[in-house]
Amino acid sequence: MGIPHTPPARFEVEEDGAVVLPMDHPLAHDGVYLSCALVELAAQLAGRALGSSTVARAGVLVEVRELRLAARAVAGGTRLLPELVIERAAPPLPRVFVRLPGVLEARLTLKVAG
User: Fold this and answer.
1) Which of 4, 42, 79, 86 is in Cβ range 3.0-4.6 Å of 74 for a Cys bridge?
2) Does any domain span residue 100?
3) Among 49, 34, 41, CA closest to 105
4) Domains held by the chain: number
5) Residue 10 domain-assigned?
């Protein structure tokens, strides 16, 4: 059995870094698991954390290893407040490390295509 995947989705990141997932999104109901949507979310969070809204367009390589999520239900969905642990590799490639505690530990290397 493979890991379930969902179609890529866009998420709005609030001023405090929180992400709100719609009620009908699988991550809002089934907990956090590796999916296309999670990769998309990690890429967006990486761009925000690195202070760049153009990370995707720049084709930056993002390494995902550690992400702490505090989740709570809100009207219309689930609010996730992420904490990112970020390290910078030799320029120009930033590295973002993300782990999903108690759910999944995985090391991904993904190219954020524009």
Assistant:
1) 79
2) yes
3) 34
4) 1
5) no
Measured in degrees and rounded to the nearest 5, phi and psi for residue 67 equal -145, 125
pLDDT, tens digit only, all 114 positions of the chain: 344 444 444 555 555 555 555 555 554 444 433 344 555 566 565 555 544 443 333 333 444 444 445 556 566 665 655 544 444 444 444 444 443 333 333 333 333 333
- Whether residue 57 lies inside any domain: the answer is yes
Q: How many residues does the chain have?
A: 114
Positive or negative torsion for Cα 113, 21, 65, 89: positive
Domain with 105 in it: 19-111
Whether residue 93 lies inside any domain: the answer is: yes
Q: Are strands 77-88 and 94-97 parallel, antiparallel or unpaired?
A: antiparallel
